[in-house]
Amino acid sequence: MKANEVLEKYAAGEKDFRRENLRGQSFQEKDLSGADFSEADIRGTNFKNAILRDTRFCKAKAGLQKRWVIVLLLLSWITSGVSGFTSFSGRFLVARIFTSQGVVEQVFGWIALVVIIVLFTVTLRQSMEKAGTLAIGIAGVGALVLAVAITVSGAGIGPRAGALAGVAEFLGVVGAGAGAGAAAVVVGFIQAVGVAGAGAVGGVFAFAFAGAVAFTFGGAVAFNFSGAFAGDLAGVITIVVALLGTYLGWRVLTGDLKDAWIRTIAIAFAATGGTSFYKADLTNANFTGATLKSTDLRKATITRTCWQNTIKLDRARPGNSLIADTAIRELLVSGNGYNKSYVDVNLRGANLRGANLNKANLKLADISEATLQEANLEWANLTEAQAVGTDFTNAYFTGACLEAWNIDSTTRLSKVDCQYVFLLENPNGMGSRERRPHDSNRVFQPGDFEKLYQQVMNTVQILLRNGVNPEAFRQAFQELIGKNPEITGDSIQAIERKGNDILLTLEVPESIDKGKVEREFLAVYEARLEAAKQTALLEAERSHLKDVKEIVRAAFTSNQLSNPTINLTNTVQADNDMSDNSQSFNIDQGQANNPNNNSNLVNNSTIGGGIAGRDNKGDVIHHHAPDKNLAEAAAEIQQLLNQLSQTNSTSNEIEKLTVVARAAEEIKNKPILKAKVVNALKAGGVEAFKEAIDHPLVNILMATIEGWTEV
C-alpha cells in the first residue's frame, strides 16, 4: 500500500492497517496517532518527525529492505579485501626476517613481529582503542629517536638519506603492525554489521579470510620469498588476523564494553536505509513482539512506549534513550526484574506494565511518569524513589519499603493491592521499620492504602528546626497566604513537636506546587528568624540592665536603710539609647570599715534564684523564694493568656500563634515578670512551669520563651 493511500484512509477515519506492505514508504512529519500497523512490513519506512501517539506496531517487521542488504554485503566484501591487504603487509614485513640478507632489514622484520604480537595482546586483554593508541605512541617515539640520531650524527647527505629511509621504514613497520590489528577490527566490524544488518556472518567471514589468504598467496608469488618457514609464518599471521577478527566480532555482538565503539559504528552503519523513527513521537506506542533490528530510534519520544518481547531491539540505534542501557533494555523487553538492582537508574517514562519487580531494589530510581500498572512491587525497595506522575493502578505493594519516596497528586494509586508497607529501609534504634498498619496482626483493607497516601499527597510538611518563633511564623504564614490565596488559616492541619523541632503540616490543593509552598514559607521564616536573633541580642542587653535595676530596687525596698550615706543611684535611659545606661552604688567607706556598725550595710545574696538580705537584727529575709516565684509567675502568665484569649480569636493555628506572640511580647516588656519567668524556669524546669499554668496555649508559649534562660 502506498503512503498516499494510507493517509487518505486515515483522514477518512480508518486506522486499521494491519498486515499491510509499507516497505520504503514515507510518512515523514505525518500524524498517524492511534493507527494500527500490527504485523505490517515497515522495512525501510520513513517515520521521521511523525506523530505516532498510541500507535500499534505489534509484531511489525522493521529494518532494512533487501536492496540495502545487498549494498551492505558488497561494502563488507570491499572492507574485507582491505583487511586482507593489510594482513599481507604485516606478513610481508615479518617475512623479511628470513628473506632479507641485510641486518637492518631483519631487525625491522623482528620489530614488526614484536609490534604485531604486542598489539594483538593488548587488543585481546584490553581493547582495540588502547592498542591503536599504543601503536601511535610507539611510532612517535621511534620517529623522534631516529630523527635525533640523524641530527646528532652530523652525517652527510647519503647517510642522512639512508637514516631517513630507516625512519620511514620504522614507521611502516609500526603501521603494518597496527594495520594487522586494524584488519582484525575491520573483520570484526564487518561481522557486526553483517549480523546487525545483512545477517551474513558466515559469508563475510569467509570472504575476509579468503581475501587475506589470496593476498598472502599473491604476495608470495610476486616477491618470490625463499624459505618454507617464512611462508609458514606468513600463513600463520594471516590465520591469526582472521581469527582475531572473528573473536572481536563475537565480542562486539555480545555487548562487551571493551570495544563498544565498534558496535556503535556497526549498528549506525547497518541502520542506514532502515526503518527510521528519528525524532518521532512514540508516546504510548506499542511494539510488542516487533522485530526492530536496523531501526533508527534516535531522539524519539518513547514515554510509556511498550517494548515487551520485541526482537533484536539491541540491534536498533537507540541514541541516548532508555533502551541504550543494556540492563534497562532487558527489563523493558522481558519484564523480569525479580531481585535485581536498579539503584539510582533512570526509568522515567518507562513502560513496566505487569513487570515482575518483586524484591527489586529501586532506591533513588527515577520512575516518574512511568506506568507500573499491575506490576509486582511486593518487597521492593522504593526508598527515595521519584514517583511523580507514575501510574501504579492495580499494582501489588505488600511489604514494599516507601521511605521518603516522592509522590504527588498526579501519582495514581487506584485499586492497589497492599496488606502492609514499611516506612524505613533499615530498623531504627528500637528495631522497628515503622510498619503500616502498626499492629502486626492488622492489614490494610481494600482502598485503605490509597486513602492513606491520598491524604499525604494533599499536604505539605515543613520542619522548623529548634522550635518555633511565633512572630517569624506569623509573618511567614501571612506572606504565604498573600501569594497563595488557596491557602487559609484553616489549612494548618497540625503543629507537632518532633524532639527539639516543630513539624508544620499544611493542607493544600492538588494543583498547587508543594515545593514552591515550602520554599516561600521557609525563605520568609528564616529571614525573620535571623532578624529576630539580632534584635534579641540588643533587647537582651537592655533587659539585663532593666532587670538589675528592678531586682536591686526590690531588694532594698523591703529593708530600706536609714543611713543617708548609702545612696542608691540608678540611671536607665530609653531602651534605644543603651550607651548612656549606668548604675552606681555610693556607700560611706567610713561606716563600711566599722565592723561593729553593720546595721547600715546590706548583705545581698542569691539563693536558688531568689534574692535574700539581712535586717537590722541580722535575720535573713527571702525576697523571691523559688516556689513562690514560680507560682507568682505562672499566675501572672495564665492571667495574661486568659485576657488575650478573650480579646482575640483562637479558632485556628495561626490565630493561636498570634496570641502567643503577643503574650511573649508583653512578658518581655515587663522586666520583673520576665525575671520571675526566667528564675522559675531555671529553678523548677519547663515541665513544672507548664503544670502550673492551666491554659491550652501553654505548650506553644513554652516553646517560645524557654530559650530565654540561655540568654
Mind explaining what this structure looks like?
The protein has 711 residues and is mainly alpha-helical. It is built from 18 helices and 10 strands. It has helices spanning 3-11, 66-99, 103-125, 128-153, 157-198, 201-223, 228-253, 260-270, 326-334, 448-457, 470-483, 514-557, 589-592, 626-647, 653-668, 671-684, 686-692, 698-705, and strands at 421-422, 435-436, 459-464, 492-498, 501-507, 567-571, 582-586, 605-607, 610-614, 620-622. Helix 2 runs antiparallel to helix 5 (157-198), helix 6 packs antiparallel against helix 7 (228-253) and helix 14 packs across helix 16. The longest helix is centred in the last third of the chain and has 44 residues, at 514-557. 37% of the residues are buried.
Q: What's the alpha carbon Rg, rounded to whole Å?
A: 43 Å
Shape: elongated
Helix % is 40-55%
Poorly predicted regions are 153-230, 555-624
Task: Give the arrangement of secondary structure elements.
Blueprint: H1 3-11, H2 66-99, H3 103-125, H4 128-153, H5 157-198, H6 201-223, H7 228-253, H8 260-270, H9 326-334, E1 421-422, E2 435-436, H10 448-457, E3 459-464, H11 470-483, E4 492-498, E5 501-507, H12 514-557, E6 567-571, E7 582-586, H13 589-592, E8 605-607, E9 610-614, E10 620-622, H14 626-647, H15 653-668, H16 671-684, H17 686-692, H18 698-705
Antiparallel strand pairs: 1-2, 3-5, 4-5, 6-7, 8-9, 9-10
Helix pairs in contact: 2-3, 2-5, 2-6, 2-7, 3-4, 3-5, 4-5, 5-6, 5-7, 5-8, 6-7, 11-12, 11-15, 12-16, 14-15, 14-16, 15-18, 16-17
